Amino acid sequence: MKINPLKREIDGNTLYLQYSFEYSLGRDILWYSIDNKYSEFITDLLDGPLVALLIPAMVLGEDIYINGVISERLFYNLSKSCQILLKQIIPSLKLINLYPEKIETQHQRASGVATGFSCGVDSFCLLDDHYYTKVPKDYKVTHLLFNNVGSHGRKNERLFEDRFRKNKPVAEKIGLPLIKINSNIDEFYDGYGFQQTHSLRNISVPLILQNGIGRYLYASTFDFKNIHVMPTYDIAYIDPILFPLLSTEVLDIISTGSEYSRVEKTLKVANVKDSYDSLDVCVDPKSAGNCSQCWKCLRTMLTLDTAGLLEKYSNVFDIDIYKQEKANYIGKILYNNDPLLREIIHFANEKGYKFPIKSYASGIYYVGLKQFKNIDKLIRKSINRIKRNLLNLLHLHPNQ
């Protein structure tokens, strides 16, 4: 793979940043777009596209040739440590070599402090620690980013725009600029979902904005006791370890919030008045706002309900839908080993919150269903193994 220098194009008020590249599948362009008034934030360094295309290159096992300049610190960390860490969570990746045309040590750090802003629990928790309360100047948020790098679904421009329009007045009320960044990065991650790769996708954005952003605060998903390095569906398990490896001499990527459990974050956010009419945790791809019945809406609502705080959010959640779904949802999570769900069960026990009898019955059903699926999968594997062994003994090919 060969990554070429940045090419800028302006269309009205929109600045397009284009990075052409060649690889075994042909020629293509990785692009980002941003309001032209932030043009001074853009760096000519190729740190951003390098991080964006690192996993796609590792999937193919292709070395990366960078036809331009990258940061020395990033080159050092991406060449070995970062790749080995990524391979621990995605074992199918292959280690590759990086060949930059030039590496430089940068010295001028920008004053901007940015974070992603989705109006979710993590976003408001981060702002509570780094904006609403007293915090050292160099760690107080000055800019909010709203990225389209895969979280809104493949080619779902409508949802991205709808969510931006919904979040923009919230940012204005808070008193911070909300910078919209669109991209086609998701097109190069076939077979590797957003949850497993979101960290590198999102971090490619502040790396492109290094002339205006000197610190990027990334809201954590898991608390410290659940951080681990092993094959997983969610790259967030390694964020506190990964982000120092994605930083440069002038851009610190910092994971924040792992000192809190998910329940603690939710309770913390419930003290932020700006969240009462704007909290948005939904993963339903159909529309902006909360559907009140997806797994993330229900997880948040059950936590708030257990704490006696759900009514504060009656303007953003449909509590009637929640009441209809509640018993069945509790049944689904009662015996689930997901650490974020175990937190809620433990919290409910601490608060003396009584679950409906129906939930225990449905919980047993879901456990049985899961065990049946596991047994069925094991039987199918065993049959296929026996079949292969018999064919090998008979020296036959499956198609013969």
Structure description:
- With 400 residues, the protein is of the alpha/beta class.
- It has 2 domains: 2-256, no CATH class; 278-351, no CATH class.
- It is 42% helix and 18% strand.
- It is built from 12 helices and 10 strands.
- The chain has helices at 47-60, 72-79, 81-89, 121-132, 157-174, 194-208, 239-246, 262-269, 295-306, 319-333, 339-351, 357-393; strands at residues 2-11, 14-23, 26-35, 64-71, 98-104, 112-116, 143-148, 178-183, 213-219, 252-256.
- A 10-stranded mixed β-sheet has the order 5-4-1-2-3-8-7-6-9-10, sandwiched between helices.
- The longest helix has 37 residues, at 357-393.
- It is globular.
- The mean pLDDT is 92.
Share of helix among residues? 40-55%
Number of distinct beta strands: 10
Average predicted confidence as pLDDT: 92
- Quickly count the helices: 12
* Spatial order of the strands forming the largest sheet: 5-4-1-2-3-8-7-6-9-10
- Domain count: the total is 2
Oligomer: single chain
Distance between the termini: 39 Å
Shape: globular
Succession of helices and strands: EEEHEHHEEHEHEHEHEHHHHH
Q: Which structural class do you get from the secondary structure elements?
A: alpha/beta
| Low-confidence sequence ranges | none
> Using only CA atoms, what is the Rg?
23 Å
Strand content: 15-25%
